[in-house]
Amino acid sequence: MSQILTYRIREVDGRDDEIADVLAELHRLTFFSGASIPAFDRGHWWLAFHEAAPVAFAGVIPSTHIRNAGYFCRVGVVQRHWGHRLQLRLMRTMEARARRNGWSCVVSDTTGNVVSANNFIRAGYRMYRPACPWAFPDTLYWQKRLISGASSHSTHSKRR
After folding, report:
1. What is the pLDDT of residues 39-77, one digit of tens each?
2. CATH says 8-145 is which class?
3. How many CB atoms are closer than 10 A to CB 138?
4. Which of 78, 106, 122, 124 is 20 to 30 A from 140 (CA-CA)?
């Protein structure tokens, strides 16, 4: 039987040197040499903790490809903590920040990562073809439109 682990997700300041070091170490543990370490002093960053240990991270920056959008630039989960929906939880936390920023959507991309692609699907993202693709020929591009403001569906009865 699988053990249920508890996690705490916290937005952090990537401009802080100690935080940037933690983010860089998690990046090395999750991406190895497969991706360059991003600039943690831009955008918004989160750490997920199990007990006191950081075990996952995520980041979003303003998109340079889509107007009024966030670019979900990184998410990494230490292998020992796979299977606990941490990537999905980090995505939802990031989307809440994107809504508060007033962005109309979030875009991202995956290349050769079926697990991440399935998490994008699970989180409600749709594949799309950008006007100017920015990655590799086999990259999948993802977009999620964000709904801001009140719903057009009222739960109150209409009285005349």
Report:
1. 999 999 999 999 999 999 999 999 999 999 999 999 999
2. alpha beta
3. 8
4. 78
